[in-house]
Structure of UPF0386 protein SAMN05421508_102602:
Amino acid sequence: MNISKAEQRVLHALALGGRILVEKDEKNRILDLNCITREGWSLADCTAPVFDRLRKRRFIRSQDGGPYRITRDGLTAVRAQLNQR
């Protein structure tokens, strides 16, 4: 499956325990995205188009209104990074 570099970076951060926090308005439209790594750093590669593609492919999901996390499909789609081999 073709996954862009930005999508790979976001999925890898999520696979290591990160999360995506979404701020929405009263009409449930997305105002702001913030991808937080396990260490608490913010990832700049998480943009609205990247988020939409990951959600459309069901690589990430939110459960009970919580932050978005990686799914099983997302874990199988992510490639190993050099720092994790």
About this structure: The longest helix spans residues 5-15. The chain has a mean pLDDT of 90. The longest strand covers residues 30-36. The chain is about 30% helix and 25% strand.
